[in-house]
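Quick entry between incubations.
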Amino acid sequence: MKKLRANPALSSLLMVSPLAAVLLIFLVLPIVLIVTVSFWRATEFSIIPAFELDNYAFLFGSPVTYTVFFNTFKYALITWACTLLIGFTVAYYLAFHIRTLTWQIALFLLCTIPFWTSNIIRMISWIPFLGRNGIANSTLMSWGVIDEPIEWLLFSDFAVILAFVHLYTLFMVVPIFNTMMRIDKSLIEAARDAGANGAQILWNVIIPLTKPGIMIGTIFVVTLVMGDFITVRFMSGSQSANVGRLISNDIALLQYPSASATAIILLLTVLMTIAILLRFVDIRKEL
Amino acid sequence: MSNQDLELVSVTKRYGATVAVDAINYRFKSDSYTCLLGPSGCGKSSTLRMIAGHESISDGSIVLDGRDISHLPPAQRGTAMMFQNYALFPHLSVLDNVAFSLKMKGTDTAKRHAEAREMLALVDLTDLADRLPDQLSGGQQQRVALARALITRPQVLLLDEPLSALDPFLRIRMRCELRKLQKELGISFIHVTHGQDEALALADEIIVMNNAVIEQSGPARDVFNAPQTKFVAQFMGGHNVVALPDGHFAIRADAVSVTAPTQGAVEGSVTAVEYQGTHVSVSARITGDQEVLALIPDTTFFANPYNPGDRIGLHWDASNQHKLIA
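Done. Structure below.
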């Protein structure tokens, strides 16, 4: 034991090893497996270990891939814009307009209530609301706003994005609220003392200081939306597809090599997106 | 010139049922350095923040230069505030921090940067213009805050405990600079502090506040030399508060001399002797179980020393005996 303590290199190695082991087994190993499988050969009835680029060639050769990736980015971008707008507003209101900490915490917990049920249930609960004879359409018709039901409310891109925004806005609220709470209130007084009006304070002080929180929220939302498949399937009524659905279809057809190749490309795409985002803002201060 | 004064007319601040500032009246002289002095919670900061416009006033009015500024937004009052922790914008360079108020006014970049550089030259920070605030020392940050407040060309600069975040050595240096700057600029400084030495060193006029009201105000020397209340005498320090047959009196400790037991105004026994370098402090217990402190020049003391337990007489001139009204 004494010897162990005397050797700082060994003891720090031992301290790191549990986390290293967890990451190795649950992160690195699966990815290595997926990468390996993505080079295997698949036929209708068999999967053969091999090293060939057929899966990737097929992926990049198919026009479906590009449409699906475009769709994925489209969902990510629109969802990001909506969640940012709503998330920033909610966080701003909580952080700067609610005066007491008790109320801030109470209202913040209120925002988390939807998370007490599962994603699927929250998603499905939109269906009776948005459907052809659903609550939204019948209400609008009874008000005389529309004469016949709006078709695009359910099983459309609108429904998909609505569900995404509903599911993921909290991931934007939390980091932004957290960053905003750390802004020294005297900075806002100092800005007001220097003659800044509300909009100028927002633009020149609050937004620049909230950037790291916005960036963390952005990473959450973008990765969640880009990796999702179930929301797209349910809310588009299987009429739209994103990369996640492409992979899940391959898996359903037991086309594991093809699914792996798509997954690797999606992983690289998401990593590149995050790398680009991180060029803009230094989030290290926040961690 | 006299209508450039800042005047408080029964200014009151209430938070619910508690009164933080209770109908205070004061006329600040123009071009002077005034210290608002008092223990924490006495209402001095609230008063300053009301003058600045960061706290609404519950009653009364604030008049500057003949204008009622009580309800104007901070930037339109002709005041500028320097915050306790400086409140520099951490994402902006020193230059942009100083130029902030000009940017808000819509001054173009070249012009506002030139003006900000002028201000930085005034506080001797030209070389650090491109740094971020957290790359500066406490003293440098304070100068930036000062430059940022002064660029608005205020008639009155409000300083909220500006020296409390600095170490003792820097505090003394910065307070010289503040005083020098006030003289150079020829505007009024109003400085909130809880340190009486800081107030005495800096101020032309001192306002001592306690329990939401002004206890005493006037030229620094008058306030120190002739306290009117027990609170002021004790808060300023260096005073004995003695109950004599015709009332309470404040007597400066350094105005008390020690004599032979029968020759003084009062007689007492020495309880403690402390050597303090230039002075020796002698505590004595007199009739009525009161403690009196005498500060005696060290040469005088060592020519004729006393020890605890000795009987001595204490003497002071009648002119040094100030009657306390409360």
